[in-house]
Specification:
GO terms for molecular function: ATP binding; ATP hydrolysis activity. It comes from Glycomyces luteolus. Keywords: ATP-binding, Nucleotide-binding. Residues 9-253 form the ABC transporter domain. This is ATP-binding cassette domain-containing protein. This protein starts with 8 loop residues before the first strand and ends in a 7-residue tail after the last helix. The protein is globular, with a radius of gyration of 19 Å. The chain has 2 domains: 9-84 and 171-250, P-loop containing nucleotide triphosphate hydrolases (Rossmann fold), CATH 3.40.50; 95-155, no CATH class. The relative contact order is 0.17. Strand 7 (174-178), helix 7 and strand 8 form a beta-alpha-beta unit. Strands 6-7-8-3-9-10 form a 6-stranded mixed β-sheet, sandwiched between helices. A 4-stranded antiparallel β-sheet has the order 2-1-4-5, covered by helices on one side. It is 33% helix and 23% strand. By secondary structure, the chain is of the alpha/beta class.
Length: 257
């Protein structure tokens, strides 16, 4: 990861208020190509509001969002997705009754070539299953060989893998993961962390929101710390310990101490 590059996604001075409650108070953030940037902070620190602004779910009152060195204004989540920013939320938004391939292409179903697809709108099930297998394989997901299995038959970790694979398949610029290991056991958490590394190795930058400090320090290149609606610091696992990060997050110490 090389921070000499231009950020692929950048927030400058984001402000967001909800009545008298200040969600964001002039927040900056930089995400560079091919890195995992963790965003941490106590409840109420503004990390959820920050992510919502970066992914089109909220529109900031002030400040700028730059994507690929261009000033961008997202009108909503669909707009952010159209710009190549995919988000995997905690609830995953998968359809349990549909199979893995159908979930990967949910809302983006591919049609058969020729008149069958253009005129009769026939879905290319075989083609989508082929591409789904290719996407899962490219991400090193070996536990989901059969893409015709309904999602309701999968474990929590496997469902998370499907959601991440869907984001990777369409998130051409940035993938945002919201607490991806929150409900998982140790083995499945490790599989998701490996998935995050594979995304980074493919050159896809990842924003990881997590309360799990060991996971953050295991996979993050840099760590953005939110506190009281502001960016308290940006640190790295090489320069700071978990104890340091918690102390900055809670206000027990300043970043430069």
């Amino acid at each position: 990861m090389n921070t000499d590059k231009t950020p692929i996604l950048e927030a400058r001075g984001l402000v967001k208020t909800f009545g008298r409650v200040v969600g964001l108070d002039g927040v900056d953030l930089e995400l560079y190509p091919g890195e995992v940037l963790a965003v941490i902070g106590d409840n109420g620190a503004g990390k959820s509001t920050l992510i919502k602004c970066l992914t089109g779910a909220e529109i900031p009152d002030e400040g700028e969002i730059w994507l690929d060195d261009r000033l961008t204004r997202f009108k909503g989540p669909q707009d952010a997705r159209a710009h190549g920013i995919e988000t995997v939320y905690q609830n995953l938004a998968l359809s349990p009754a549909l199979d893995i391939a159908a979930n990967l292409f949910l809302g983006r179903e591919e049609r058969k070539p020729g008149l069958l697809g253009s005129l009769l709108r026939v879905v290319d099930t075989k083609g989508m299953r082929r591409r789904a297998r290719a996407e899962l394989s490219a991400l090193g997901i070996t536990t989901l060989q059969d893409v015709t299995v309904p999602v309701e038959n999968l474990s929590g970790g496997q469902r998370q893998a499907v959601a991440v694979a869907r984001a990777a398949a369409f998130g051409s610029k940035v993938v945002v993961l919201d607490e991806p290991t929150a409900a998982l056991g140790v083995r499945e958490s490790n599989q998701v962390l490996e998935l995050i590394r594979n995304l980074r190795d493919r050159g896809v930058p990842v924003i990881l929101i997590s309360h799990n400090m060991p996971h953050v320090f295991e996979v993050a290149d840099r760590i953005h710390i939110q506190r009281l609606g502001k960016r308290a610091a940006t640190i790295t696992p090489e320069t700071h310990s978990m104890t340091d990060a918690v102390a900055i997050m809670t206000g027990a110490r300043e970043a430069g101490e």
